[in-house]
Amino acid sequence: MEKLSPFMDIASLEIESLRRIKRPKRFSEESETETMTSSNAVFGFPHLPEEPNRDLDQSVLCRIRVRLPDGRRIQRSFLKSESVQLLWSFCYSQIDESERKRFKLIQAFPGEYKNLYFGSNTTFEESGLANSLVSVTWV
Fold first, then answer.
1. Widest CA span of the chain, in angstroms?
2. Contacts of 99 (CB under 8 A, 6+ apart)
3. If the chain, 139 residues long, is cut into consecutive pieces of 10 residues, what is the mean pLDDT of each piece?
4. What count of other Cβ atoms lies within 10 Å of the Cβ of residue 45?
5. What's the rounded Cα separation, in Å, for the pair 40 and 118?
6. Residue 82, CA distances (Å) to 46, 87, 114, 122, 126 in order
7. Where are the beta strands (DSSP E) in 83-126?
8. How far apart are CA 105 and CA 23, in angstroms?
9. Where do the domains of the chain lie, and which CATH numbers do they carry?
10. pLDDT at position 105, please?
């Protein structure tokens, strides 16, 4: 065990130094407003309309924050009356083309989580997703 001690100390220092490295931000406000490409149709996601104006009455808007698999966090406003399926379109549009593959959305609660299903035809208000955090994970 004494012979392994120096290696264990070095490994813990390397792990600590890796934790301090920050990922570069690859997301900007400009990329959020880009329109959807035709490749979105490959997965059957609906067309993503423009983001609603933030000056609208807050009772009709909801903000959804999304954590992507690469660690980025993005945010977008939706109308509460819009279909939850638009969330898949938004997430797909934010994933780099080289990384695009099947994914699922999970809404985490303290102590539990809820899988979201694309086939659901509910609105943001009906689903309880208004003003919440959703995580994108690979299937």
1. 67
2. 69, 70
3. 57 54 45 40 79 88 94 95 94 89 88 87 90 92
4. 20
5. 14
6. 11, 10, 20, 8, 10
7. 103-109, 112-116
8. 23
9. 61-138 (3.10.20.90)
10. 95
How far is the C-alpha of 122 from the C-alpha of 137, rounded, in Å?
21
Distance CA 36, CA 18 (A): 35
Token pair for 9: 């100390």
Q: DSSP code of 68?
A: -
Can you spell out the DSSP letters for 8-55?
HHHHHHHHHHHHHPPPPP---HHHHTPPPPGGGGGGTPPP-PPPPPTT
Question: How many other β-carbons are positioned within 10 Å of the β-carbon of residue 91?
Answer: 22
Task: Give the pTM.
Answer: 0.67
For the record, the structure tokens of 68 come out as: 């992507």
Going by the DSSP 8-state scheme, the letter that residue 118 receives in this structure is: T
Instruction: Give the C-alpha distances (Å, rounded to integers) separating 90 from 5, 16, 54, 121.
Output: 49, 35, 17, 16
Q: Please state, in angstroms and rounded to a whole number, the distance separating the CA atoms of residues 123 and 127.
A: 6
